[in-house]
Structure formats: structure tokens, C-alpha cells
Specification:
It is a single chain. The protein has 2 helices and no strands. It starts with a helix and ends in an 11-residue tail after the last helix. It is an all-alpha fold. It has 2 domains: 1-38, no CATH class; 43-94.
Length: 94
């Protein structure tokens, strides 16, 4: 309960401080963020990250799918051995 009260107080303080800063300050912050986001060095890094994701994501998905399938296979084999789901698989056994 104490955490909720502190959260509501923080939310209220943030609202009041934000409202006092006003629209002009918001526009200044948004303009500065836009300049940084569209600067050549940040644009270059964004392009590199996008290229990395486009080239590596399919392999990552394949690896994750294979790992999940392998884990599922191990769990399925254990339950078919006659344990009938009564034994909990330990991480070192999977």
C-alpha cells in the first residue's frame, strides 16, 4: 500500500512540475531530441543497427526455435519415461 501511495504522489508531482514547465519548454526538449535523432552520426548508427537486425534476426529466430524445440523434446521424453509428470525437471537436467 505504501508503494502505491508513493507512486501516486510521484505521479502528481511529475504532473505539476511538467505543467509548470509549460508547452514552450516541451517544444525546446522535443526540438533538441529531434536534432540529436536526425544528426548524421546517430543516423549512421541507426542504419548500422537496422542492417545488423535485418541480417541477424532470421538466424536468431532459427536458433531460438531450435533451442525451444530441444528443450520441449527433453521435457516430453522425461514425462513419457513413466514419471507421469510427478517429477519436476531441474535446470541441469534439461
Amino acid at each position: 500500500m505504501r508503494g502505491r501511495i508513493l507512486f501516486v504522489i510521484g505521479l502528481g508531482a511529475g504532473y505539476v512540475l511538467g505543467a509548470k514547465a509549460g508547452r514552450q519548454r516541451y517544444e525546446q526538449i522535443a526540438s533538441a531530441a529531434d536534432k540529436v535523432w536526425n544528426s548524421p552520426s546517430v543516423q549512421k548508427q541507426r542504419d548500422e543497427v537496422q542492417h545488423f537486425v535485418e541480417t541477424k534476426a532470421p538466424k536468431l529466430v532459427e536458433t531460438a526455435t531450435d533451442a525451444a524445440g530441444g528443450a520441449l523434446g527433453k521435457v516430453t521424453r522425461r514425462s513419457r519415461r513413466g514419471d507421469h509428470g510427478t517429477e519436476i525437471a531441474r535446470p541441469e537436467d534439461v
